[in-house]
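User: We ran a pulldown and think these components assemble together. Before we commit to crystallization trials, I'd like a predicted model of the whole complex to look at. Sequences follow.
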Amino acid sequence: MSDKVKVTIDGIEVNVPADFTVLQAAQLAGVDIPTLCYHPDLRNTGNCRVCIVEIEGLPLFQPSCAFNVWDGMKVMTNTPELRKARKMIVELIISRHNTECLNCDSNKNCELQDLADKLNIQDVRFEIEPDFDHPIDNSLIVQRDPSKCVNCGRCIRMCNEIQTVNALDWAGRGYEKMAMTTMEVPLAETACISCGQCINVCPVGALVERDDTEIAWKYIEDPEIHTVVQTAPAIRAGIGEACGLEEGYLSAPKMFAAIKKLGFDKAMDTNFTADLTILEEGTEFLTRVTHAVKEGKEGIAFPMLTSCSPGWINFIETYYPDFLDNLSTCKSPQQMFGALAKTYYAEKAGIDPSKIRVISIMPCTAKKFECDRPEMNSSGYKDVDIVLTTREFAKMIKTANIDFDKLEEIKPDDPMGVSTGAADIFANTGGVMEAALRTVWEIITGDALTLELTPVRGLTGIKEAEVTIEKAAEGYEWLKGVTVKVAVVNSTGNARKLFDAIRAGEKSYHFVEVMCCPGGCIGGGGQAKPTSWEIKAKRAAAIYKEDENRELRKSHESPAVAQIYEEFLTKPNSHKAHELLHTHYKSKAHLIK
Amino acid sequence: MVKAKEKRIITGKFTPGSGIKAALAGKPEEVVQEVIDSGLRGKGGAGFPAGLKWRFAANEKSDMKTIICNADEGEPGTFKDKYLLDNHPMKVLEGMAIAGYAIGADKGIIYLRGEYAYMLPSLEKNIEDIKKNVFSKLKVGKKKFEFDIKVRLGAGAYVCGEEFALIESLNGNRGEPRNKPPFPIQKGYLEKPTLVNNVETFATVSHIIEKGALWFGKFGTKSSKGTKLFSISGDVKYPGVYEFELGVKLRDVLELVGAENTKSVQVGGFSGINVTESSFDKTLAHGDLPAGGSIIVFNKDRDMLKVLKNILEFFEEESCGQCTPCREGAYQLLKGIKMIEKGEKSIRYYKDLCDLCATMKDSAKCGLGLSIPSPFLSITNNFKDEILYR
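Assistant: Here's a predicted model for the assembly, 983 residues in total across the polymer chains.
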């Protein structure tokens, strides 16, 4: 709706679109209304009643997050009655909350603490009775502590409405109504894909990821152990923010310095294997196309689907097992790195691989699940030993008294540290597609591609593009005139929409990139809290800037990639590459029966 | 058994088909106007002018509209809709068809309280009969008149009597109220315009359309027209369903039903208010005592703290639990009363509970949470000595 209406908030007049909520209008007017169950990325239910306001002419207080403006509306946000009611409501919420803040994961990053502070709550008039009856659920990567839950329902809305995973749901009624896992079973028995999006929207510390920082410290302290750290593309646009710097703060060199300063032996980069993924996945794609188009073979699965996002892998294994043949057999860059660190790097550096520990720093909680998969041991050892999220990495930096902003700028360690801009953009939705096209296009047409592929950029949920091959390079003449159709999708909810359409025969593509988390890895479940589309846009912009500033921006131009093929893997999709860098998938459909 | 005092409308005689025939003789907007002119207020408890609701619903443009008859009679001490559906089902069905014609809906759903499941066979037979014997013989212009009615059973949640919770339940979701606006007449059943009225409202409409707004307006008071069914229970000699003209004095009602040694009366059900002797000369009408239809009488032998505890236990369990004031508030009020019963809390704590009530009354999401403070405040005010200083 483009029509504008005039609204007065605490005497401040603003003109806002007619479909705005009172809260949005207040934000525009610069009036800060406290909220709790509200989240800018979610459907708003107006249930906690913290954001209530008084609207002239209405007998009752209304929740500003779920109440639309009208022309001439007069809103009061700070009357004595509202202050009293809000305080009462927050006291009621606290009366169900475990107030042991000092040993809480969300201490000092908690919306309930902020509320209590803002409303100057010095005394709770009711007995504090947290839910200790339901045990802490640590059956999976995402861990729930019911005693801290404030029943805002943000996790449920994220899980069911945005991600459409349906692992969380409401249980009970009345005072017994609580946010729970679906059917109140341990999370491991639900369809949870470990995406961690529920953690990102939890206003308190009721949902957290399994903390592996103690294991990381032990590796560092053990003189027998050689630690190799890899950092995902999205970390360089996330760790600064997690350390309290501005949103979209970008620094790969300081990130490497932080790793070294923490005492890890090697600071390498998942970006290296992101480039390698493009070569492996691009070759796989061309092979599939050759089989289908040139050789006319039947039964080649299209669209080919990306496989970098472990939450997406969990989702497709559970909800769309009929598409498993479409998945690229490429492991995710993190797992490729792990397998190579304990083979290629161990050999090169002359280190016993049994003494190597690979520590991944990922924007992602599902990566913790991925590295624990039993098949992820092609090096002969557990390829990746532990995964730390951006948040855990930031906690270690804090514990070690490191001022991230003041760190010196260093380069990553060889031989798995060098990378290109194509690897950076893996962090954003559309990035893997863009990186793949930069390389594949050049192979099949012989021409370099314009480096900013706008149709696959941006945070839109489902993006589509198609291009007809007018000019073909030598050996690819048979592709001339072929129109390649691609799609890019972020969030499993959007993936569901797209794959339902593909299943129904309404849509068809050659290649689809799927990222589990809204916005891609910059919006990953392990990134800094709080998060929103506004914040994600800043992180995404930082990533594109990093790519632009690079000399090398195409994966096949990476000297480190050339070196590993020459010294170790021979060529893309070689036998050795298949052994170390590719995997297989299996249906988990039983989880939803 | 109905024991009417003089005038009967809702429980009076009715010739099946007379209402809908009269409706079809006029334009839909004339039917809406007739209901507006009659001054009829919704009989579910809130007392919103029914005609106005119909006009809003009629003005909505949509390819589908639905009429819902709210038969989820869950208010403790209310059993008048049960009486109507048992004894005058045709009036209700016809009222729904009239509403359908008036607002442009060709489907109706009766949301029947789970405990009334025994009615299902007879109700479905009545629907079949009215379709065959009445509706099928009617025409709108040259077209055949069509109106389909289905019965859906509730599952026992009190909150599903709230119109949005009822609709959510029909939509296959948790039965929980929504924020308004949008109202059900804008986005209701299957997200399409939906008119929800109480059983008694539909039954009354059949008479209004048959005999006209002018006739109906002769009954009742200026702001509460017509008559109303009351479910009367508790410490009375003759409990049952009664039809009274609106504006009747509570004292006259109590006398008629054989209430003796009356200590207090819960008017309007658990969610209504508690009144004592000094209010018995008030009238049951809009703006005076709530005319929701439930009257529970307590005599001098009753312990009002136990009465209040019983009421709060009900609400604590029946709150849908989605909004903080209702979910936590009902629990804290009940807990507070239990502590006062044991002598564990002082009068200061009672003041905190009154502050809690003030918040609930202004901030809860739906009528359930908004009205829990009514019994709490009225009973504790009426019986301070008995409850607080025991």
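The longest helix of chain A spans residues 270-294. That may be worth checking against your pulldown data before setting up trials.

User: Thanks, that helps.
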